Amino acid sequence: MKQWLDRVTGIVTMYKLVIVALAGIGVVALVLSLFGIGTYSPLALLASAAVSIVATCSTSVLIARIMRVKPHLDSAMITALLIFFIMAPTLDPLGLVGIAIAGLIANISKYLIAVRGRHVLNPAAVGVFVVALIAYTGFLGFGFAVWWLGSSTYLIPVVIGAFLVLYRTQRLTIAAIFVALTTVGTVLYFLTVGETALSALQYVFLSSPVLFFAGFMFSEPLTLPPRRWQQIVEAVVVALLFSVPFSFGPISRTPQLALLVGNLIGFAFGQRRGIRLTYLGKTQLGPTTWELSFQPHRPVRFVPGQYMELTIPHRKADFRGSRRYFSISSAPAVDAPITFAITTPSKSSSFKQALLDLEPGAAVTGTGVGGDFALPTDVTEPLLLVAGGIGITPFASQLAHATERGEKRDVVVLYSTSSPGPLPYGDLLAKSGARVVLYAPEAPATLPPGWEYAGAGRVTGERVASAVPDAGKRRAFVSGPPALVNDLRRALRSQGAKRVHSDYFSGY
User: Fold this and answer.
1) Which residues, listed in sequence order, are joined to residue 480 by a DSSP beta bridge?
2) What is the structure's pLDDT at 508?
């Protein structure tokens, strides 16, 4: 089942998956309304969706032209659909104007509420929040944020859509933490006002937008902090603001306010500026593997093993889009280049082709750094690193960093590759002093000290047990294709490993 989910959700980019999930929920809502199920009429749903999409996407194009940047229409479409699901569907002209204004404000916020090229707040939440403030003043009678998907009527499609998105973005755990904290906060509040815990649970899951909020808004990667503990801090604050009623004039408890406060926390923890890079060139590491080097305009903070999202606008982009995540292969260093490694199959995506076609000096942007695939701070803890193909990339960063710092770690690396010829990052692995067990189509002519050739084929649980008898006593890290990661995670746990960290390249 897990491999099927990896394959299905990895077919398209995260942005496309979110659009498909939201559109699917919208289609279900429309069909239900045709049968008289739900609060809003089919015409109100169609009119509101059309206004939100047209207004948001067209203003995105217009503002991008004014700012002389390429519009990101996938992002604009997601914002439009979120606004549609948050604001009350209507046929009233003023109500439709409110939806259109929310879309306009959302797009403006991406450029005005930004620090050095990085937007700080969730655009849909900003648009809805500002329109609600205008409505509160009574200046114009429009703009009601009702979060209408927070109903038992739409529970099943919302749960399915949110699950697929959270699975794809590996945010299931943090979303579950947020939902659990919100549930506890709501139950405690209900008890203080004389209501029952059962009433609170019914409210949370059948009458509130908590599942939609957790799946499609709170978990947005661009506004979440990069590390898990930081995300938990944000989850605690947002859950408190989401579950406990309060009011100070026009400011009261609303999901959009809770999210905006959480966004500020995420911004405080994360990279506080857009990442601007200059392309330096590429080096071929193997028959189908290339390392690409970029010089940041300003220092970029990251922990070895983390990833960065790169944006490469290009003509005739395929369905996988113009933004992709890549693990950083270089060690952190002030003013040093940042490198990434990619493989090039016989039929590459338009993104990879555009990346390989870059000319030295080309400007590239990164949207942020994230991930918790980091080695323990205790250098005495024995480690097992298992890499499949391009999965060696985060380990290259980690081992290079450890070597530069003079760390004496007990490390065993199991490295599987299906390509003959030079081994990507082989010199770096040799320099690190780690014990390396190599699985490759053919044995190398010579092996560095501490290395051994274990034959062709992929790494399996049996091979791990044979090569590393004490695997259960080591902190394990597995990186590579989803099938490899899933199989080895189970195998290592069956061998007694208590901590198995994974990093897989779904849709890479």
Assistant:
1) 504
2) 35
For helices 73-86 and 42-67, the axis angle rounded to 10 degrees is 140
The domain locations on the chain are 2-269, 275-370, 383-504
User: What does the pLDDT look like over 212-234, one tens digit per residue?
Assistant: 999 999 988 778 887 888 999 99
Q: Dump strand ranges (E) for 26-123.
A: 114-115, 118-119
- For residues 479 and 504, the answer to whether their CB atoms sit within 8 Å is yes
DSSP secondary structure string for all residues of 295-314:
EESS-----TT-EEEEE---
Dihedral pair phi/psi, residue 136, rounded to 5°: -65, -35
Fold of the 383-504 domain: Rossmann fold (3.40.50)
Q: What is the enclosing helix (H) or strand (E) of 341?
A: strand 338-343
Statement: residue 394 has pLDDT above 90: yes
Q: Which helix (H) or strand (E) holds 477?
A: strand 475-480
Q: Which long-range contacts (CB under 8 A, 24 or more apart) does 465-473 make?
A: 465/491, 465/495, 467/412, 467/414, 467/437, 468/384, 468/412, 468/414, 468/437, 470/382, 471/384, 471/495, 471/496, 471/497, 472/496, 472/497, 473/382
Q: Give the containing element (helix H, strand E) for 112.
A: helix 93-112
∠ CA 163-167-173 to the nearest 5 degrees? 90
User: Of all residues in the chain, what percent are helix, strand and coil, respectively (each to 5)?
Assistant: 50, 15, 35
- C-alpha–C-alpha distance, residues 235 and 171, integer Å: 12
Cβ-count burial 311-323 (b if 16+ within 10 Å, e if not): bbeeeebeebbbb
CATH annotation of 275-370: 2.40.30.10
User: How high does pLDDT run on average in the chain?
Assistant: 88
Total Cβ atoms within 10 A of residue 470: 12
Helices (H) and strands (E) in the chain, counts: 17, 16
| Alpha-helical runs (H) found in 142-227 | 155-169, 172-192, 197-206, 210-213
Spatial contact of 224 and 234, defined as CB atoms under 8 Å apart? yes
The architecture CATH gives domain 2-269:
Orthogonal Bundle (1.10)
Asked whether the beta carbons of 376 and 475 are under 8 A apart, the reply is yes
Q: How far is residue 32's CA from residue 89's CA, in Å, rounded to a whole number?
A: 15
Cα separation, 337 vs 330, in Å, equals 8
Q: Which two tokens stand for residue 194?
A: 């004389």
Ranking 133-142, 148-157, 355-364 by mean pLDDT, the lowest is 133-142
User: pTM of the prediction?
Assistant: 0.77
* Contact by Cβ (8 Å): 146, 203: no
DSSP letter string, 234-288: HHHHHHHHHHS--EETTEE--HHHHHHHHHHHHHHHS--S-EEEEEEEEEEEETT
Q: Which of 104, 114, 121, 123 lies closest to 62 in space, CA to CA?
A: 104
Choose the most confident range, by mean pLDDT, from 64-68, 101-105, 363-367, 459-463. 101-105
Helices (H), 278-425: 350-356, 392-404
3 C-beta neighbours (distance < 10 Å), count: 12
